[in-house]
Amino acid sequence: MLAGTQHLIVDKMSAALERFAELCEQLSATSKKLEKRSLISDYLKSLAVEDASRASLYLSGQPFPETDHRTLNVGGSLLSKVIAKLSGADENAMYAAYRRHGDLGAAVFDLLKARPDNAASLTLDDVEHAFANIAAAKGPSGKQPLLLDLFDKAAPVEAKYLIKLVTGDMRIGVKQSLVEEAIAFAYGAQPAEVRRAVMLTGSLPEVTAMAIAGNLEQAHMRLFHALGFMLASPVATVEEALERFSEEITAEHSGASEALPEEERKAEHAVVEAAEVTPQRAVREAQLEDKYDGIRAQLHCGDPSQPGRVALFSRNRDDLSESFPELIEAFEQIQEPAILDGEIVAWNPSEQRALPFTSLQQRLGRKRVSREMRERTPVVFVAFDLLYSFEELLLERPLLERRSALETFVERHAEATMNGTQRGQAHLFADSAIHRFPYLILAPAVRLQSAEQLDRAYTEARERGNEGVMLKALHSIYQPGRRGLAWLKLKRELATLDVVVTGAEYGHGRRAGVLSDYTFAVRDGDDLKNIGKAYSGLTDAEIDELTKFFKEHTLEDFGGFRTVEPLIILEVAFNNIMRSDRHDSGFALRFPRILRIRNDKPVSEIDTLERAEEIYNAQPDKPEES
Fold first, then answer.
1. pLDDT at residue 179 above 80?
2. Is there a common fold for 293-442 and 495-618?
C-alpha cells in the first residue's frame, strides 16, 4: 500500500509543469547534443506513459500533434493584454523587458518575478486541458479569460515556457529530431524506427507511447499530415553544380551516399573507386528539371474513409487549402490515395507556362479567394514527385521508379482535374470555358548529358519565367527534411546593387541586442529612395561594429528601429526585382542578401533608381504590367 502511494506521488511530482520548465532551462544552458539527449531521455523515463507523451510533444515546440488540426490562434496583442493584466507592467516596461531578451518568454519571466504569489501548481495534464479549451474558444474575448486563468496559476518559469509553447518559439536548442532520438534512447529503440513511426503516423505522443510499449513496428501510414520535404542544395554556377554533383555520385557508387538505401550502400557491387566517377560521367546520372518560382507544396488526396478529401501543405506544414480552393475542387475528383510533391504556380493556360511569383503573391494568406481573383490569376499544381500511391510509401524507391509512377499517375488523373466544381454560388456566374484546363501538370524532366546542356537549360528555364534548374540523382531516395547533394538547384543571382543604409533595426533571439536588420536606398538625383531590407550575409563581428557605428550616427530613435545617417555602403545581391509600394523607390528586391560592406565607395557612387529600373526591365520573368 505504501509503495503504491509513493509511486503515485512520484508520478504527480514528475508530471509537474515546473519540472518540465526546469528541464527546458537545463537544455537552454548547454549546446552539447548528447547532453541534451540524455537530459530529455532521463526526464521521459521518469514519467507515466500519458505524461511522457505530452512532454515529448511540448519539447518539440508543438501544442498539438501534426494530425490534430486544432490551433491556439493566440496573437501577440492578446498575449500582451494578458501579461499586462497579470504583471501590472505598462507598455514601456513590457517593451523594455522584451528588448533586453529578444524573447517574449524570457521577458514574461522578468515581469512576473515580482508577483507575491507565484507558487507552481500546474501539471502537464492541466496544460493539455487548457490548450484544448483555448483552441475551442471563439475570438480574443473567449480566449482571454482562459489564458488569464492558466498564467495566473503558473510560476514565472512555468509562464516563460507556456508563452514559448503558445507562440511556437521554444528556443531551447531542441528540434523534433532530437526528441525522437531521446525517445529511442530512453526506451531501447533505434532512432530510425522512431522517426519512421512519426513520419507514418504524424503523432509524436502516439509514437512515444508505442516506443514505451515496444511496438513501433505497428505504426501505419496516415494521409493528411505533412511529411518532411526533401530539400536541394544551392549552387551558383554550372561548374559548381557539376563538381558537387560528381561528389554525390562518387559517394553513391562507393556506397557512402545517403541517397541510397542502407542495403544498397553495403552491397559489394556498389563499391567503385572514387577516381572512376568524373563530372562527365556524373552528369549522365542526373535528371534535369525546371525550378519553378511558386510555392513548394505537398498535396494529399483520395481518403478512402472520406471521399473527396484533399489537403495542401506548405514547407512549414501550414495548410494552404483556403488560399487555393480551385486545387481542392480539382483534386476532389481523384479517389486514388496519393501524396504528391510539387509547386503551386500562377499559370497562363493559353500559353501553357508559369507566371512570375509576383502574380501569385496576392493569393497568399487569403481566407477567401474571389471568383475574379481566380480568373485573373489561375494556379496549377506542377507535380515532380510521388511519395505515396496504392497504400505504399515510395520514399525509399529510387527517383527513376518514383518518376515512372508519377508519370503514370498524371496520365490517369490529369484530365479529371479539369472537372472541379466551384463551391457556393460562384459556379453560377463562372464562364466554364475559362476553367477548362488540367490543374495537375507533370513537371517536364530530361536526362542530363553534358555541361553545355545544363548551361543552355538554365537560360531556357529563365526565359520561360522559371527560377532556374534542378539536378537530381536518378538513384536518390526521398529523404524528408534533408538537404544534401543528391538534389541541387542552380539559381544565379539576377544582379547586385551598391546601396546605402538609411535605417537599422534590432534583431530577435541571439541578435536581440544588436542592430542587424538594415533598410537601404539607391540614389534618385539628389534624393535617396529606399528599395529593400536585408539581415543576412554579415558576420557577427561586422554586425557588432555596425551596431556601434549606427548608435553613434542615429538621426531618429523609435525604440526598435532608428533612422541613421546614410554613410554605410553595402553591396547586395537578389533574385528578382518587382514593382512595390512598400518602398518610396516603387521597387522591392526579392531575397536580398548582403555580400559585403563597401568601405571603398562614397555615397555619391552608389547605384541609382534608373539602374534598378534597367535591371527590372531586363529580367526575363518580369511580370506583365497593367
1. yes
2. no
525 C-beta neighbours (distance < 10 Å), count:
9
- CATH label, 293-442, candidates 1.10.3720.10, 3.30.470.30, 3.40.50.960, 3.40.50.620: 3.30.470.30
In DSSP terms, 533 is beta-bridged to 519
CA dihedral (394, 399, 400, 405) positive or negative: positive
What CA–CA distance (Å, rounded) separates 571 from 599?
10
Q: Are 547 and 515 in contact (CB under 8 A)?
A: yes
Q: Among 111, 35, 590, 80, which Cα is nearest to 361's?
A: 590
- In percent, the amount of the chain with pLDDT more than 70 equals 89
202: phi then psi, degrees, rounded to nearest 5: 70, 20
State residue 411 phi and psi, 5-degree precision: -60, -35
The SS3 of residue 169 is: coil
Segments making up each domain of the chain, as ranges: 76-167, 237-280, 293-442, 495-618
The answer to whether residues 87 and 250 touch, using CB atoms and an 8 Å cutoff, is no
User: What pLDDT, in 10s, does the model give residues 330-343?
Assistant: 999 999 999 999 99
Task: Tell me whether residue 291 is one of the annotated catalytic residues.
Answer: yes
**Cα(515)–Cα(561) distance, rounded to whole angstroms?**
8
| CATH code, residues 76-167 | 1.10.3260.10
- Whether the CB-CB separation of 199 and 317 falls below 8 Å is answered with no
| pLDDT computed for residue 620 by the predictor | 67
Cell 563530372 maps to which residue? 279
Angle, helices 33-45/49-59, rounded to nearest 10 degrees: 150
- C-alpha 580/C-alpha 33 separation (Å) is 44
User: Alpha-carbon dihedral of residues 75, 78, 83, 84, nearest 10 degrees?
Assistant: 140
**Which residue among the candidates 143, 160, 291, 489 is catalytic per the annotation?**
291
Q: How far is CA 554 from the centre of its chain?
A: 35
Sign of CA dihedral 99, 101, 104, 110: negative
pLDDT tens for 19-46 read 999 999 999 999 999 999 999 999 999 9
Stated length of the chain: 626
Cα 524 to chain centroid, rounded? 37
Residue whose grid cell is 537552454: 28
In 421-494, DSSP assigns E strands to 440-442, 445-447, 468-473, 483-490
Cβ neighbours around 224 below 10 Å, total: 18
Query: Does CATH number 3.30.160.390 belong to domain 495-618?
Result: no
pLDDT digits (tens, 9 = 90+) for 482-513: 888 899 999 877 788 999 999 999 987 778 78
**Lookup: cell for 60:** 518539440
Beta strands in 9-51 (DSSP E): none
